[in-house]
Amino acid sequence: MDFIELFDACVRENKPRLDKYTKPKSLDVTLKEEDIGLDSLDVTLTFVMLFEIYGIPETEDFNVPTESLRHVRDYMWENKQRDFDTVEAAMEAVT
Amino acid sequence: MIYLAKFYGNYAENTTLVADVPFPQHAHILPETFRRAKSGLKYPPHTLLETVITDEAVNYVLDNPVKGKTAFIFAAGNQGWMGNNGRYDKDDSTELHYKVKLPFIVLTNIYAGRVASMFHVHDHVSTDASACASSLKVMMDVQNLMNNFGFDRVIVLSGEDAVNNLTLEFFGEAGASLQYKDEERIKPSAFDEVNQGFFLGQGATLCIFEKQHAGLTKPKAAFLGAYTSAEDNTNPLGQRPDGEGYSKAIEGSLHVTGVRKEDVTVVKTHGTGTEVNNRAEKAALQRSLGAFVATSYKQRIGHTMGASGLLETGLLLNDLECGIVPKILNRTADDDVFLSYDAPAPQGPFLSLAAGMGNIYSAAIFSTEV
């Protein structure tokens, strides 16, 4: 499952307006508002959805490294309790 | 002059039986707003509100800047937002149960700030919790900001903390919402000898109020003024039978607008159909106005609580555009004042009423002559 596509799907679920959002082109993008167009609340909501998808306990919420999207992906993959083959399947699994 | 430039509303006409709560009852539910709510990832009231925050509305505001200041007001109904709080909602197996993963996002002021930023509002952001009067109560704030503080545009978003186990049990226990066990012999209506309240309903509205500017074309109505009152009552959940609170609100709105009582021809009532509201609202209208016809929308869309005042006002505007004042559904008596039939829309200003628990009564006067 492509992490950028999954991240993008989660952003689209949680950000009411996407006019300032730029879909990441690589895992090297930072999560700063000026780079990606997400404010801190957007980022938090996106992380919470990723946690749900990967089955990561909520106690880990505020330990995600945010230097880059690659750091986020690595953290999720290191802590995941489950995974999905496709973005569609992952999004479908969140009730 | 203040105009209602844009009106967006969402509500459910159909009802769903909610059987797995202590007071089983029908409610006007929008099932899609409960998507991803059981996991706590999505919050039904926000999902509903975001259906009225349309791209068209946002783009209209961003593409048509006004000279003066812009405000954003979130009329939130009740501040007890969060479906899983209190004593009512501990059974998470029930149909409407939902939880909140990030409690801070449901704080109404944080949500207001989030939505205000979509409209690039940076002059004034506020919230209101005047219960079921909330969206009409804030019309007093709209009037004040625009007449006294240099605001040329006020965006009002209104909603409520969904229809959840808490609200169903609360209104069921209070005897205000019509329960399933009583439906065979009675339907939701108002101003009859025997009514038994309403069905609850999910609803939201976004209204944009403006002074005249180059981009303003075909406003939906003129907003003439509003007033909110309380009454001399020791019971914050009750209403005085003489309708003092309603009368004070009506007379306050007439005073502030300069409209004569005999010029008000149409009334959108609060019209819950509870015994106490039937008595209070009818007494006040008969005392404080001249000849008028009155309607109610709660029988069509349910009681949408915080959104109800402005949402129902917008629906009346839609009907007036079609030339009718719609009847109050399910009336059991013929009535040409509290309408038991559809009546032709008369000319002249119309009055919208709302009441909220906590001793709150709101009246706002609009005109379709723009």
Q: How would you describe what is shown here?
A:
The complex is a heterodimer of chains A (95) and B (370). Chain A is mostly helical and 95 residues long. Chain A has one domain (3-93). Chain A has helices spanning 3-14, 33-36, 40-54, 69-79, 87-93. In chain A, helix 1 packs across helix 3. The two termini of chain A are 19 Å apart. In chain B, 27% of the residues lie in helices and 22% in strands. Chain B is built from nine helices and 15 strands. Chain B is an alpha/beta fold and 370 residues long. In chain B, the strands form three sheets. In chain B, strands 5-4-6-8-1-9-15-14-10-11 form a ten-stranded mixed sheet, with helices on both faces. Chain B has helices at 44-52, 55-63, 108-118, 134-148, 165-174, 244-257, 275-288, 298-301, 308-321; strands at 2-11, 16-18, 25-28, 69-75, 124-128, 151-158, 200-201, 203-210, 221-229, 266-268, 293-295, 324-325, 343-344, 350-356, 360-367. Residues 85-89 of chain B have low confidence and may be disordered. Chain B folds into two domains: 2-210, Peroxisomal Thiolase, Chain A, domain 1, CATH 3.40.47; 221-367, Peroxisomal Thiolase, Chain A, domain 1 (3-Layer(aba) Sandwich), CATH 3.40.47.10. Classes of the chains: A mainly alpha (95), B alpha/beta (370). The interface between A and B is medium-sized, with 13 and 17 residues.
